[in-house]
Recover the amino acids of this structure.
């Protein structure tokens, strides 16, 4: 998942719901969301994915609930690369002798922070620009469209490398910033499409005929009815951004030592995996994969629930 | 169709220039904010200013606009574009022509990407069609589960795991088996072998294509299911057409339209993935070049290579758009 | 091309059809007690609940009813293009010249489609494949059913387009569906139905998506072609004005059942069922200016939850206690007509 943009592609454009086909703002959407909730409640995938997400989130926000060991309590000489054992630490020790479980738990916070910040940033930009382009059309649409094309022309990972080359500081804000700057294009396009099809619905014309201002139409009618794709996509994006951050960190341009994130653990563990310490690699990899999987499953299940055609 | 083509071409050129300018501006900002990379090469013992100046001139970094923060350096940009148009991409910090380096490495990356593309397209579409036709049955569930799992793996995780636990192990095991043919052993080699330019790239190619394969399978599946529900399918059946024809001829072409669009976007994904894969499997391609340059902080190379790749990406998208119009006649007359 | 068998009047029959036990004395189409149900998440919906009608050659039958009454499902059941599951033909027979189509295997049934019975759908834009030319889609019928070559098929396609009065047929044959106007597209659909000279054409709301003037043109075309080719035509619609001009007899459907069957004049002059009466009265007339519109109060029942007794009882102006418990059968009404109402005499005489 190194390219965020391809996760939200035509697939979502085709399937993602455009909201109810008639009715006014809130009343009609309650139908869509109410139905969706009914379906979600009964889906085992939804609950398992949600539980996983909740676990990872709580690890990120309340790491002390999950481990009493400090992540930087490292004893190279005593426990360096120690394998997992049932009477020692279940997840073993890292290359530098730190408790693997503690490192992984504490490592989740930075990764999730980046993912959440990036998802929020991309969503805000996507909704703002996408709505403007879709609703106002014409010149505004052209300008935003060309702007989107230009940024889109930079392949995601390559662009990230170049951006991170400018910004020497590597913290949650800078990394999120880079992901946002490179990832906003996809969501913008999709929102534009969603708004465009909502704009053409009759109830928007009706509202305009009653003399509603553009602002009113956008916020009370267009947005509530075209916002469904945003929920699906931002959930999937959370997973994509976790993956992207891990990739960048692994490549050496993301978080640096001594920030403990999963990407760094993988980078560290790779050379020693075959030298008798596979756990150095497998455990952080597993955490990344499971976290990304949880978000994707959640997004999938949300998409199916919100799909008006499944009614 | 002609009008559509003309419009796309007219859109293409400003976008290419725009992306190149974006790259240029980023590199300029980097120098303006982080300081002179030439100077940084020498650490604590810089040579006299005259020498530095001369070096800067050689690398095209002597424009005074680089002293003011935020200056877009348009003159420099135009010079650069002019150079690029003449296929002059400058020199790296060791004085080698970047054009030469790229030309040498490009075929390798091309091979890697080709393997990935063919693999992901053929297997992806095949699995997607199978799953779509047998919706909610065993095959469909198997495909859905496996593709979801595959997507959850970041390419680098997949690559590392495959290399460490799969390729190396099998490769070593094969070496001890007297019956194993040479070509098989060379497929599972941990490094790139220039004597076997295709075989030794098979495993990395499969890794590179896996994520996209999963996406393509899902996309094909969704698209096929949707098209099977379409009204025109009902009409085809009402015309007495056999189910096989209805699926194979009527729905397939419609179903592949979004897949083709996706392949265009995917090229960008593959470029990033190639970067990662070449890094992991130590392949001396263009991705590996960027990998190295990032380590060495050789900005000229990074900018030049990313510029080339961006143009390749945009061109590929243009070609895909044209092919899309061939597939979907509704687009031709927009 | 083999000569005609008893089953059809013109054109050729694929060998498979020639062996069937056609009965030249049987009515062209005879639907008896058709029952179709849909298995949905919310229960089993009785989409078609014991519908019977028949059709003779050259005759036009109108099936009239509001959305959801089961008319399209009936048409698709006759064609055999229902999605099974979730649909299921629970009971009944559909006899084409005495041969029960429901008993045929799918392969044979496939030959019946387009050759013997063809259908025209409502929305031509979605009913036509967007990526193939109109000529290709028309020609497909000849290529697949008659074994024609591409060139032959194309020529026939052009002939067809001329038959349905599409101007510049030779050029338009290479156009795509989205390049036609709504009325022209519908003509293409009609051409597609006519291609193999079927005995019966079912037109499912053929003009609903069109402008009024275009509607008139398309209906006239359909009527003319039917006369020329001496086909049976089943016209499905909710629009009473369209029905009046073209059909010979009408079956009115409500909540999946036939509630009245009569000749067209009989229905308009003297309806024998409260629903039909309500429909007629709800047509706005010039001399009603100043009065309230007479709509039928209430809404049709959910097909998953049909009421005991008469389905129309909750909305009926003539309702009595008996209606709520006894589901009325089709009573015979003088003049060779039927009505599914216990109190049809009252309705008749009111």
């Amino acid at each position: 998942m190194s390219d965020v943009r391809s996760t939200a592609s035509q697939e979502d454009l085709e399937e993602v719901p455009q909201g109810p086909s008639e009715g006014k703002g809130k009343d009609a959407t309650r139908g869509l969301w109410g139905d969706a909730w009914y379906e979600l409640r009964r889906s085992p995938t939804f609950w398992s994915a949600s539980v996983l997400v909740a676990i990872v989130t709580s690890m990120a926000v309340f790491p002390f609930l999950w481990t009493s060991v400090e992540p930087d309590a490292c004893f190279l000489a005593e426990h360096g690369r120690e394998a997992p054992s049932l009477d020692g630490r279940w997840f073993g020790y890292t290359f530098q002798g730190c408790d693997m479980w503690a490192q992984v738990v504490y490592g989740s916070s930075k990764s999730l922070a980046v993912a959440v910040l990036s998802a929020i940033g991309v969503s805000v930009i996507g909704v703002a620009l996408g709505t403007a382009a879709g609703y106002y059309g014409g010149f505004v649409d052209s300008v935003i469209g060309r702007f989107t094309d230009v940024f889109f022309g930079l392949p995601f990972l390559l662009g990230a490398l170049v951006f991170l080359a400018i910004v020497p500081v590597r913290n949650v804000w800078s990394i999120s910033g880079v992901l946002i700057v490179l990832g906003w294009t996809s969501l913008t396009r999709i929102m534009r499409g969603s708004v465009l099809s909502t704009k053409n619905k009759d109830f928007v014309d009706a509202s305009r005929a009653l003399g509603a201002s553009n602002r009113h139409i956008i916020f009370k009618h267009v947005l509530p009815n075209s916002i469904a794709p945003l929920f699906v996509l931002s959930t999937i994006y959370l997973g994509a951004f976790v993956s992207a951050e891990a990739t960048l960190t692994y490549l050496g341009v993301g978080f640096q030592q001594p920030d403990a994130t999963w990407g760094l653990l993988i980078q560290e563990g790779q050379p020693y995996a075959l030298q008798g310490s596979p756990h150095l690699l497998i455990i952080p990899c597993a955490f990344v994969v499971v976290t990304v999987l949880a978000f994707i499953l959640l997004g999938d299940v949300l998409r199916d629930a919100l799909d008006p055609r499944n009614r | 169709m002609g009008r559509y083509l003309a419009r796309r071409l007219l859109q293409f050129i400003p976008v290419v220039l725009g992306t190149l300018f974006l790259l240029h501006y980023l590199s300029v900002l980097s120098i303006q904010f982080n300081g002179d990379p030439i100077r940084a090469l020498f650490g604590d013992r810089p040579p006299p200013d005259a020498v530095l100046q001369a070096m800067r001139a050689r690398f095209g970094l002597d424009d005074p606009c680089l002293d003011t923060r935020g200056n877009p350096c348009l003159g420099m940009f135009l010079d650069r574009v002019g150079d690029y148009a003449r296929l002059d991409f400058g020199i790296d910090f060791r004085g080698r022509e970047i054009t030469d380096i790229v030309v040498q490495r490009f075929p390798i990356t091309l091979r890697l990407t080709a393997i990935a593309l063919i693999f992901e397209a053929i297997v992806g579409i095949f699995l997607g069609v199978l799953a779509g036709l047998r919706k909610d049955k065993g095959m469909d569930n198997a495909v859905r589960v496996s593709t979801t799992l595959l997507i959850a793996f970041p390419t680098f995780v997949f690559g590392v795991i495959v290399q460490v636990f799969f390729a190396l192990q099998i490769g070593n095991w094969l070496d001890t088996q007297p019956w194993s043919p040479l070509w098989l052993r060379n497929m599972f080699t941990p490094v790139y072998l220039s004597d076997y330019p295709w075989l030794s790239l098979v495993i990395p190619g499969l890794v590179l294509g896996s994520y996209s394969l999963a996406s393509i399978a899902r996309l094909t599946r969704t698209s096929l299911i949707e098209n099977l529900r379409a009204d025109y399918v009902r009409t085809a059946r009402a015309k007495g057409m056999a189910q096989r024809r209805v699926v194979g001829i009527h729905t397939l072409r419609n179903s592949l339209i979004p897949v083709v669009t996706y392949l265009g976007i995917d090229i960008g994904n593959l470029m990033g993935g190639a970067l990662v894969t070449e890094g992991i499997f130590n392949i001396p391609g263009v991705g590996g070049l960027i990998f190295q340059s990032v380590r060495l902080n050789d900005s000229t190379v990074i900018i030049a290579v990313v510029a080339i790749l961006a143009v390749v990406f945009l061109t590929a998208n243009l070609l895909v758009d044209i092919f899309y119009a061939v597939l979907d006649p509704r687009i031709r007359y927009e | 091309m083999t000569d005609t068998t008893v089953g059809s009047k013109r054109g050729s029959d694929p060998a498979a059809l020639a062996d069937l036990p056609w009965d030249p004395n049987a009515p062209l189409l005879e639907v008896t007690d058709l029952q179709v149900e849909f298995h949905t998440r919310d229960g089993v919906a009785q989409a078609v609940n014991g519908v019977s009608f028949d059709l003779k050659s050259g005759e036009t039958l109108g099936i009239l009813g509001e959305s959801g009454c089961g008319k399209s499902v009936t048409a698709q059941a006759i064609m055999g293009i229902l999605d099974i599951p979730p649909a299921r033909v629970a009971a009944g027979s559909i006899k084409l010249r005495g041969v029960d189509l429901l008993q045929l295997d799918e392969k044979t049934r496939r030959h019946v489609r387009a050759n013997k019975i063809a259908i025209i759908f409502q929305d031509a834009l979605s009913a036509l494949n967007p990526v193939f030319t109109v000529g290709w889609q028309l020609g497909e019928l000849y290529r697949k059913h008659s074994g024609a070559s591409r060139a032959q098929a194309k020529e026939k396609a052009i002939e067809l387009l001329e038959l349905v009065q599409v101007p510049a047929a030779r050029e338009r044959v290479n156009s795509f569906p989205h390049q036609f106007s709504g009325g022209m597209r519908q003509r293409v659909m009609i051409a597609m139905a006519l291609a193999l000279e079927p005995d019966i054409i079912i037109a499912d709301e053929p003009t609903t998506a069109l402008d009024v003037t275009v509607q008139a043109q398309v209906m006239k075309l359909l009527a003319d072609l039917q006369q020329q080719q001496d086909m049976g035509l089943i016209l499905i619609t909710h629009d009473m004005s369209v029905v009046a001009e073209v059909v010979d007899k009408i079956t009115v459907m409500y909540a999946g059942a036939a509630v009245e069957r009569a000749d067209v004049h009989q229905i308009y002059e003297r309806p024998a069922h409260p629903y039909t009466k309500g429909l007629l009265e709800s047509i706005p007339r010039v001399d009603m200016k100043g009065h309230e519109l007479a709509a039928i109060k209430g809404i049709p029942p959910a097909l998953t939850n049909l009421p005991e007794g008469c389905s129309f009882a909750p909305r009926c102006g003539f309702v009595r206690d008996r209606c709520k418990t006894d589901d009325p059968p089709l009573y015979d009404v003088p003049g060779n007509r039927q009505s599914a109402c216990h109190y049809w005499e009252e309705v008749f005489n009111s």
Observations:
- The CA atoms of residues 107 and 285 of chain B lie 8 Å apart.
- The radius of gyration of chain B is 24 Å.
- The first helix of chain B runs from residue 2 to 34.
- Chain B touches chain A through 66 residues (CB under 8 Å).
